[in-house]
Amino acid sequence: MRESTLQRINYAMILAIFVTLAVHLATHAFLGVSGYEDSLTYDSVVGRYRAFSTVLTLGVLLIAACFHGLYGLRNILLETRWGARRHRLVSTATRLLGVAMVGWGLRTIVLTTWGV
Ligand code: HEM
Ligand code: HEM
Predict the structure, then answer these.
(1) Which pLDDT value is given to residue 81?
(2) Are 38 and 27 in contact (CB under 8 A)?
């Protein structure tokens, strides 16, 4: 994928984090709960995984934060410019890490939403 396309996707992900992180933090501070302690009870957490709007928010935040964080890490690692082989290694390693992180996060979402 072209670098400019990745950069545009990153900006979209930053916007997505901005919105979904605000909602995520609100659902732990005051939105539908009386405070942090109340929001961290088992029933409260599972209730959010079972509600479509909050699980969608968590899913989008998971994908957006993983992409943005790993894209940023990849750029930092590539700034050392150690040649094409290292470029490929860094890109492949961050891509694999992204698949593992999103896969593990989605596993939590799927198991808690439909399992338990
Ligand atoms: C509201 C939340 C956030 C906003 C608005 C935001 C915004 C930004 C912006 C504008 C950049 C510069 C992008 C560029 O140079 O093209 C950036 C870089 C970066 N962000 Fe975030 N970010 C947020 C959350 C996060 C989170 C949660 C992480 C970690 C998972 C993260 C990790 C990074 C990293 C590693 C970089 C690259 C730093 C560098 O190149 O030196 N950010 N962020
Ligand atoms: C005060 C800070 C935070 C608290 C207390 C908190 C707590 C939680 C809790 C209890 C959950 C389970 C779902 C729920 O109850 O809503 C969760 C899920 C999640 N949080 Fe946070 N969180 C915080 C900050 C953040 C930040 C800063 C990020 C990302 C930049 C983040 C990303 C996520 C993601 C992606 C999930 C879904 C994970 C999954 O199910 O695979 N959280 N958080």
Answers:
(1) 75
(2) no
